[in-house]
Amino acid sequence: MGQHLHAMQKLQDTYASQLGLCLVLTGKNGRFMTRASGEAKIIKWLEDPGHPGMLRMDLRQLAHHKREPGWPLETEYKPGIKALVVEIPADDSEAAVLWACFFTEARARRSLRSYYEQDVDAAFLYRELRNVMPEWNGEKKRQALDTLSGMAEIASVLLSADRQQNQGKGQLSALRDMAFSFDRKGGNLRETVAPYFDQQQEIDFIGIAIKRDDTHYQVQETLGDASYRLRGAAFSSGEGFLGQTVSTGQPGLWGGVRRDPRVQFFTQNNLYPESLFCFPIMQEGASVGVLFGGSAVKANLSEEIYDFGRTLAAMLSSRFIFQALQEERDRLYLRLSMLVELSRALAEAREVKMVLLMLIDMSLQLTQGDFSAVLMPGTERKAKLLSRGLAQGTAESYMQELAGRYDDFIAGHSFFGEARLTEYNGIPVLECPLVYHSRLIGVLSSGLVRRSDFDQLRGYMQALCATASTAVHRLEAEGESDDRDAVQLLALATRRWSGEDGRLEESAAKTAREFAREFGLPEGDVRLAGEACLIASYDAAVLRDAVGEELASIALEVQDCREEEKDQAETEGFSWREASQIAALALESAYGQSGHTRRMSRVRSALRDQFMAFMEKKNQLAAKLILNETAEQEELRAPIQAVKDLHVLSGREEEVLELVVTGASNREIAEKLYISEHTVKNHMTSILHKLGVSDRAQLIATVYQMGFSPPQN
Predict the structure, then answer these.
(1) pLDDT for 235 beyond 90
(2) Which segments of 225-309 are extended strands (E)?
(3) How far apart are CA 132 and CA 356, in angstroms?
């Protein structure tokens, strides 16, 4: 039986390499029949230290455990460290057990590490095994079970082959050749099947049909005289012998079929079999193909033909599974490489438009669809669309449809940050929002070839969009930072050369930001309205050179709002942006309070009314915090007495408080009281804490409400 075991060893090595496990075959008596394949050092944890070449006693008992022959039994060698045990279907004299060691559950990695860190005695085992044990999820484990089950069937044939030594030698040679071609790059199904066909004297033809869609199969490879006539021929699930096999998932061996109506598929292609065998090629419990063959002479085929054909079908099933895994691995590697390259390119991008174009190109490569586009909401509800593959007219109509769908996009929405499947003009479309924190930056929209592509691409496209969103946010933040630096320099120049105007414009900027927020503008527009107040006095050429295009246009619109020659009728139809008009109103209010009349006539009357209501409410609130200066002095409590009545402040803290109310800074207080600024800060912290307020503004308001009047100079 040495020749058979040699082939078994080769087969075992192949499966061990594919599964990433240590495989070894033993008899039911516990003696090793093959050398360990894969991570050979694992074998020492199975071997009985006192009896080399034998399983440990507890594992020998497990070898006799009742189980379904040919199907792996999952067992725990140690907590969380698992093995698969397969009883090889064979005669009692050849009964054997295949051991596949070790693996862990992917979801148990963290708890497993924690467990063995606490178990000192078992820690050595875990440290030695953790880097060689694969971590499987449910899908990977199921595929491994199917693979080992197929291997068990092959092993069963090998272990029974010595009953017919001469025939067995030829079959083993064929199996060995097929095993070597199992994962050979560039190998095809014809090369895999040829060794089997060459060893069989009973059959005249053999072929493989592969699934093409949900209901149709097509013959891909054939061997034997006249079998070429079948290549490319198609049949439906349930049609004839082949269709019956794929629809039921059950193998069949039939004799005397020449007059059977189910043989029509062969006869219409000028092939007239007397006997047939058919075996489904299975993947994840479904038929993905069928192995068939037969004889034009023999009315009946032997059981050996049936058994070996079944083995070949099991091997082909495993081959398909491994090919699917390899294709998935290659596809994931390609996508990961693309994501890495995109991330590197995005990190170096200097324009938002370039980021979006790279995102569009990447999505087109992934989906292989007809178009890809990115919708950018923009400011003041003005959206724009970048696209490839969409005609101009089509792009405009699609932009309107897409913008309408995301108009009410908010945090917590059912599709917030998640890709979803839609349709446009009959084309399935993957849509994925570009979101940074709770802000919608844009929407990626990519046409798909098939609706089924959505499930495969959804997670990856979300990762792409997350990467692009971060890059867009970074570039926007850099642009805002540059604008703010320029704005601060321009505002400083205004204060230096214009004096009072600089202070008025700062006050206007604060008012503009407060009203814009209450009005409900986006935070970006709030910032623009405030900054426009600070630089609206500058010439257009200066603004365009110093700040970004958007801020410059807002500031210039503020200047246009001063044109008083426009009549009211034209004003009502006026189309300047809300951020510009709010800045203009804030400047008008600040100038008015200082005695300067600068009527901003080109502001919509409805917006002006809202602003006036806001300012009235603001002034009323401020009035509540300031006592009437004309009130009788005797009605007010003296500052020192009011502080003393609190019985919470020290004498020095009362002195500090008096100076704070006059508006003195920490440095001025330190100079007047002859103490350090650090000491002043400590006193301020204590005062705020004792009076239950958080800052100077609240402190002053609280003191005024108590009737505390600042000392007169």
Answers:
(1) yes
(2) 234-236, 252-255, 275-283, 286-295
(3) 42
435 φ, ψ to 5°?
-125, 135
Helix, strand and coil content of the chain, in percent to the nearest 5, comes to 55, 15, 25
- Whether residues 43 and 88 share a domain: the answer is yes
pLDDT at 153: 85
342 part of a folded domain: no
DSSP 8-state secondary structure symbol assigned to residue 594: T
DSSP string, 298-326: -SS--HHHHHHHHHHHHHHHHHHHHHHHH
Q: Is the pLDDT of residue 627 over 70?
A: no
Residue 711 lies in a domain: no
Q: How many CB atoms lie within 10 A of CB 259?
A: 6
Beta strands at 96-105 and 135-136: parallel, antiparallel or unpaired: parallel
Q: Tokens for 102, please give them.
A: 């070790």
- Going by the DSSP 8-state scheme, the letter that residue 611 receives in this structure is H
Please determine, for residue 549, whether its predicted confidence score (pLDDT) is greater than 80: no
3-state SS, one letter per residue, for 512-577? HHHHHHHHCCCHHHHHHHHHHHHHCCCCHHHHHHHCCHHHHHHHHHHHHCCCCCCCHHHHHCCCCC
- CA distance readout (Å), 496 to 78, 311, 446, 489: 78, 92, 53, 10
DSSP 386-414: EEES--HHHHHHHHHHHHHHTTT--TT-T
Residue with more model confidence, 670 or 189: 670
Same domain, 620 and 652: no
Judge whether residue 265 has pLDDT over 80.
Answer: yes
In the chain, the percentage of residues whose pLDDT exceeds 70 is 73
Please indicate, yes or no, whether residues 446 and 547 belong to a single structural domain of this protein: no
Indicate whether 314 and 211 sit together in one domain: yes
**What's the mean pLDDT in 190-214?**
78
Same domain, 16 and 153: yes
Domain count, the chain: 5
Q: Map 472-521 to HEC letters.
A: HHHHHHHHHHHHHHHHHHHHHHHHHHHCHHHHHHHHHHHHHHHHHHHHCC
In Å, how far are 201, 238, 497, 567 from 272, measured between CA atoms? 18, 20, 105, 97
Residue 595 structural domain: 499-624
552: CB partners within 8 A, 6+ apart: 540, 543, 544, 546
Q: What average pLDDT does the chain have?
A: 76
Token representation of residue 466: 């997350």
* Secondary structure element (H or E) that encloses residue 432, with its range: strand 427-436
More confident residue, 493 or 317: 317
Q: Are residues 555 and 671 in the same domain?
A: no
The pair of structure tokens assigned to 389 is: 């593959």
Structure tokens at 135: 């971590």
Q: Give the model's pLDDT for residue 164.
A: 55
The answer on pLDDT for 175 being more than 80 is no
pLDDT greater at residue 630 or residue 382: 382
pLDDT digits (tens, 9 = 90+) for 377-396: 754 456 678 888 888 778 77
Q: Give the N- to C-terminal CA distance of the chain in Å, as an integer.
A: 115
Separation of alpha carbons 207 and 685, rounded Å: 89
- 550 is written with which tokens? 């958007």
Return the closest-CA partner of residue 5 out of 159, 157, 151, 164: 159
Q: Tokens representing 310?
A: 């079944």
CATH number, domain containing residue 660: 1.10.10.10
Domain CATH code at residue 42: 3.30.450.40
Q: Quick one: 11 and 149 in the same domain?
A: yes
Q: What is the pLDDT of residue 568?
A: 45
Say whether both 198 and 237 belong to one domain: yes
